[in-house]
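Input for the complex:
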Amino acid sequence: MNIADLPLISLITFVPLVGAVVIAFLPRNQPGAIRVTALVFALVSFGLSLLLLVGFNPTNPNFQYQEVHDWIPVFGIQYKVGIDGLSALLVVLTTTLSWISILASFRPIKERLKEYMISFLILEVGLIGVFVALDLFLFYIFWEVVLVPMYLVIGIWGGSNRIYATIKFVLYTLVGSLLMLVAILATAFSFQGATGSWVGAFDFVTLRGFAATSGFAGNLQVFAFLAFFLAFAIKVPMFPFHTWLPDAHVEAPTAGSVMLAAILLKLGAYGFIRFALPIFPAAARTFGPLIIVLSLIAIIYGAIVALVQPDWKKLIAYSSVTHMGFVTLGIFIFQEQGLQGAILQMINHGLITGGLFLLVGVMYERTHDRTIAKFGGLASRAPVYSAAFGFFVFASVGLPGLSGFVGEFLVLLGSFAYNPWVAAIATSCMILAAGYLLYMFQRIFTGELSDFLRGLGNHLTDISPIEMLTVVPLAALIVVFGLFPGLLLHMVQGTVTTVLTELNGVSAIRVFFWQ
Amino acid sequence: MAIPDALPFINLRWDDLLFIILSVVLVGSGLLVVTLRDIIRCGLAMMVCFAALAGLYALVGAPLVAAAQVLVYIGAISVLVLFAIMLTQTKAAPARLVFQTQALPAAIAAAVLGLLIALTVGATNWNAVAAPIRTGTAILARVLFDQFVLPFEIVSVLLLAAVIGGIFLAKREEDGPA
Amino acid sequence: MSWADLATIAPLAAAILVAGLVIVTDIVLPGRRVPALIVSFVGLAVVAGLVIAVGAHPATAFAGAYRVDDLTTYLDLLFVAVIALTLMFAPDYLAARDLPLPEFAAVLIFALSGVLLISASGDLLILFLGLELMVLPGYLLAGFAKRDALSTEGAIKYFLLGSFSSAIFLFGLAFVWGLTGTTRIDGVATALRAIVAGSTPLTPGLAMGLAFLTTGVAFKIAAVPFHYWTPDAYQGSPTPVTGYLSVVPKVGAFALILRLFVGALGPLSADWDIIIVLLAAATMTLGNLVALTQDSVKRMLAYSSIAHTGYMLIGLAAWSSPNSRIEGLEGLLYYGAAYAAMNLGAFAVIAALQRRTGISSQLESFAGLGRREPFLAILMTLFLLSLTGIPPTAGFFAKAYIILAAVQAGGPAGILAVIAVLNAAAAAFYYLRVVVYMFMREPRGEPAPIFLGRLMRLGLIVAAVLTMVLGLVPGLLLPIVGNAARALTL
Amino acid sequence: MSHSLDAYLILAGILFSIGTFGFLARRNAISMLMSIELMLNAVNLTIIAFGAFIPTLKVQGSVIALIVLAVAAAEATVGLSIVIAIYRNRKTPLVDEYDTMRD
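Predicted:
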């Protein structure tokens, strides 16, 4: 039997679901078995996803590993999955961080372990599904499936204000995604109206082809793009739809924050690149400048607010707003380097912020506090931990040689070609970002050991080997991608070219006085 | 001596006179039903109202319905209502609390409704004939058991269901805290 | 009446017979629960079998007064299933309150015969009688816990407003009959078509008749602003009855709407569709807004069922646009089935919680349910997610279908689609609040464990499986729904 | 006058409005029930009038009226039994005092 004959993508997607079912039948009083089962299934999914990379052919512009089955034939809705370079990377990022998060939850999660692991595995199913779905209806279903376990993870295992945070998270996300549902249905119907058949009305490849040849009507594009934009912008999150993010991050348990920052935020950016740009190119051109302005605001705003955050975790949460601002900026300048940079930034932000949240969680385990002012001189008591944290901080700042640098640099390069002013604003914020991160590092790790930390006595131990195991793979990848960004660029070149080719032949739609 | 076709002097036909009397009784007793304070009197007014309706049915040529009206409405429903009133009106029942607070808006709404119906009726051409047609009993029976047999059977089921449930709800329980 | 007529109404006759048999069983074996249940379930199975057998050959009986088509079959099977589920959920609850099961079953099956009649009526008078036969047992069931002040209180309100709306409906029916000269649905439609074609004018009298009919129906489906009896009736009724009341009379009233508005008044759809659009928008928005403020889960679900009425009305609004006739009806019918499964399930969970008397349905009583009763909590979560419309549940697909139809219809109905999704997002707040209590709050004190009867457990599992299956493989039901919708539009 | 359909219909309309008023305005459940009976009688008067003045509806009218009559009887049975049951619990027939459920 050949690997290529296996329904590899379905296996990767649904192996965690099988794990969730298995755990559901495990006895509650055996936490060890539950933990190991969850980890094993996540690792299996991870291993299979590596196989994807092995067989992936970057020069083939089509979607690979496709699986197509009829699902609701009346409307031409299919179970259709497949990957291109972008999806492949994001799937691997998801499977990697999933097992790391599960491993990182071994110690902190003691209450309702069974439900926690089930939620986490279902979350993984939804996330992988979003990245591999090639049918819009299927995509929407996975998109919503993500919501419920995340809601439970924050709401059950989160901090003191978790219920407010989780409800806010759900309501924000639902408003956007339900409007997106209307847009998906409207698009499909418009396709059906134009071709007289439901066949392919939800199929992404068909819709992309239709958009490239005949193109959707202007007012449909405007409406549908705005609906997609809202859904994706809330997920990214873009200014001014970001206010759920700090709450959710602060309240979520460590592993929840990791998944939230590393993967969930990428859903929005992925949605833009995969669906919004190819299907509604003219509308994307119309609203591009507006989104660039919003991105710049996000970059500045995130940096300034992060600067004054007293809470360690919240500071990193706001730094995400800035970093994701770079991603949307890179996407909407419609320019090769920008898009490459955006994609790289997506991956790198996942690795770096994931690592940072993991490390914050490590210290929170020991101190049960995240107020920066209470810390100080940590380097003397936990040198290994401090070194690790420092590494991720430098990666986040964009130190050349580490992966964070490449993405941001490419975005800046692209935006300079688009408009030097934009590049100038973005660059100055990069410096600001470096400032607040290093300032935070200095306050927490250097100087005299603070009274608060001293009071903890022997509880304040250095990072343990298992905890180290959770961040080392991330660090390794950061170094590798920093030194050899070509590995990533090579993978996504097909995606970048396709998206930009489609955008190029199109001009913006006139909306009222706009454009 | 033959009775003249119409009322002497004002030239009003007898059946018109009867119609006017019955209408006045109908509307008057109807108003009493909804306005009287003593609910027992309301019940009695309702009987008068039903009787006036029976008269109208007979006048317009539906004697069987008139008979049924007397039997069912006056003989059964009114008696049932009066019975329920007797059963539930203890001395504690405050007869002064007749109306809701929003009785005035209700009155206005009802008046508007009545006016609207009257105007609509006046503005509509009903394709009516000039004089009422009598309905014979024999043909009625034939239609009832032929064309309308399904509704007829269903009505009996409806009554059966109502009686079964009604008995269950209304019967006092020996052991329960009745 | 001929033999052919009798054969056509066999399911209806069987349902009435079963109701009678249950009573007889109770007389022969007084106070026994199991025989009555066996008779009921076997009887329901027979009725379902007859529905399928008769439905295989669409026919009319009694000179067109009674008609069996694919719509009839679909609705009948749905109703039989709902009644069977209600009968599974009720025994535990009734036993705990010392209420008799045989009378309950008999009255419930009488109500079934009412809805069977509605879904098969080709005549306005039959339609009205079916309506009465559906709602009269409903009043009785609402007041079934007759020693409970809340139950009788809900019943009297339900009864008074129900009868009031029946009178209004009947008044309208009289005018339509007087002006079109017939009570046959086809006949009315023909007369109205002549009016639309311009050969005869629309008289004020007919317009008034239609207005009265619409008002009466709006009461029956509890559309805003005719909704105000619903919460009291629902909250007061015994919980399994509430589940029943929120599904059967509502879907039954929609069946009536399909027969009446689509069948008879269809030719005038251009005149009434804007009314339906406004009703739908007001109904879902107000239902949701008030549900947001409720602390009793039962009352919250009562208001939310008003909102669901609004979503279903979208299907009707979509029907009135020529773009989406079939889709609108399909969406409405699919929604009916999905709504039945998830709403019955949600109420059944409350009924299970209230198996011991004295348990309110306040949010507090759900605290910590996830730990105390994982089975019930997980099912409740599933039902609530489905009511919210989160995939991959029945509620999601139903909502998506309705929205698709509305988008397709365009115009005012297209705006309804957007209003509907915003409402769905708002509704998430109050549905998920229950989940918050179940999984994220600790119970006060140490509530006793809940014992679930076998029937109850089975019923819950059936409802849950239906909720999942209708969401995951909608293709199973779609062809059936499609046939049913086309039966009406032909 | 007795030969005019309009007169009968307007009379029925008045009776219907009186019933509506009673239903909306009265507080006593039995009074409300009686008001509904008035409305149903107005319907019957309408039906009989149509039957008498429109030749094609002649016999149908009487039959439908009889059916409506029976429905009214069934409704009254159910309504009164509920009234009696509620009276056992609450000792008051005033509907707006049944407000236990409003918070």
